[in-house]
Design goal:
CATH topology of the largest domain: Jelly Rolls
Protein name: AraC family transcriptional regulator
GO molecular function, one term: DNA-binding transcription factor activity
Keywords: DNA-binding, Transcription, Transcription regulation
CATH class of the largest domain: Mainly Beta
Mean pLDDT: 86
Pfam families: AraC_binding, HTH_18
Helix content: 40-55%
CATH superfamily of the largest domain: Regulatory protein AraC
Strand order of the largest sheet: 1-2-3-10-5-8-11
Low-confidence stretches: 1-9, 184-189
Order of helices and strands: EEEEEEEEEEHEHHHHHHHHHH
Oligomer: single chain
Strand content: 15-25%
InterPro entries: AraC-bd, Homeodomain-like_sf, HTH-like, HTH_AraC, HTH_AraC-typ_CS, Tscrpt_reg_AraC-type_HTH
Radius of gyration: 23 Å
């Protein structure tokens, strides 16, 4: 099998494809989710990629023909309506059928929310394939992604629009995969574990607000002592330790990325009205002050 080639822009000649179009994102954002490139191809018989490893996520939807996809030691026969997902740092390969080579569309993306999002939708290297009886909605979304990236004079705006279409595409794939949605698993958990997961989500999103574990306990219907005990049993840390970790990690991100924010503003952004107390907690967590960490980050 051949190794994957670097994607080119627009319609190109490709000896392995009777039809080949790819559009690149010239300004992919370093955020939650950003499209890298998207394309469409109709391969020649027996054309294959891999074994190889990518450092990004890559989704293919088959719109005609058939082929074989392998990842995580498992093999999947895919045909019209099947979507398969390649995960970063996972050895994969795929090859077109000799008699009916496939015609597929694809999108590649990165982002710090990508792994969690795909896992929550029930997709992983061990469960990378889903089937759609009607692919018109999916095919339309791929066309919109490519159209957004094609010869745009505003690449930053194109990145925003393409990532929006990508989110809708992932939503549609999640609906097809509803039997494996992680969200549904909350319903079958014991009550206390379900409540702890809700507490984890609440703390993860509300870390910038004044938080009372007493108030959190009451809202979930548990005594503070009991909630703290069960929280530690499920997560390995107490609610306050979990909150501290969330706040400190977010502070590191702000110190790295938001250089215009003062230390007081960073402290306030992660739930500490007292910047001196924030600095004390930061030093305890990382062994240096916020100012020292920011200076080291700049040097790196």
């Amino acid at each position: 099998m051949t190794q994957p080639a670097a994607p080119a822009r627009g319609k190109t000649r490709n000896p392995d494809h009777s039809k080949f179009t790819v559009m690149n994102n010239s300004q992919p954002a370093q955020g939650e989710l950003s499209v890298l490139f998207s394309g469409e191809g109709k391969t020649v018989p027996g054309h294959g990629i891999g074994p190889a490893v990518h450092n990004y996520y890559l989704i293919h939807t088959v719109i005609g023909g058939r082929g074989k996809f392998e990842i995580d030691g498992q093999s999947y026969s895919c045909s019209r309506g099947d979507t398969f997902i390649i995960f970063p740092d996972e050895l994969f390969s795929y090859v077109a059928d000799e008699a009916e080579p496939w015609h597929y569309v694809w999108v590649a993306f990165k982002g710090h929310a990508a792994e969690h999002l795909l896992l929550s939708l029930g997709f992983s290297a061990a469960s990378p394939v889903v089937h759609a009886k009607d692919i018109r909605a999916l095919a339309s979304l791929y066309r919109k992604i490519r159209g957004t990236l094609e010869l745009t004079p505003y690449p930053e705006l194109a990145d925003l629009e393409a990532s929006g279409h990508l989110r809708v595409l992932l939503k549609e794939l999640g609906l097809l995969n509803d039997g494996k949605l992680v969200f549904n698993s909350l319903a079958i958990l014991p009550d206390i574990e379900r409540q702890i997961k809700r507490a984890v989500r609440w703390l993860s999103f509300q870390y910038a607000q004044p938080i009372s574990i007493e108030e959190l306990s009451r809202s979930l219907g548990y005594h503070r002592t009991h909630l703290s005990k069960m929280f530690k049993q499920v997560t390995g840390v107490s609610p306050m330790q979990f909150l501290l970790k969330v706040r400190m990690e977010r502070a590191k991100e702000l110190l790295n990325d938001q250089h215009y924010l003062s230390i007081d503003q960073v402290a306030s952004s992660v739930g500490y009205p007292d910047a001196l107390y924030f600095s004390k907690q930061f030093r305890k967590a990382f062994g240096c002050s916020p100012s020292e960490y920011r200076a080291q980050a700049r040097n790196r």
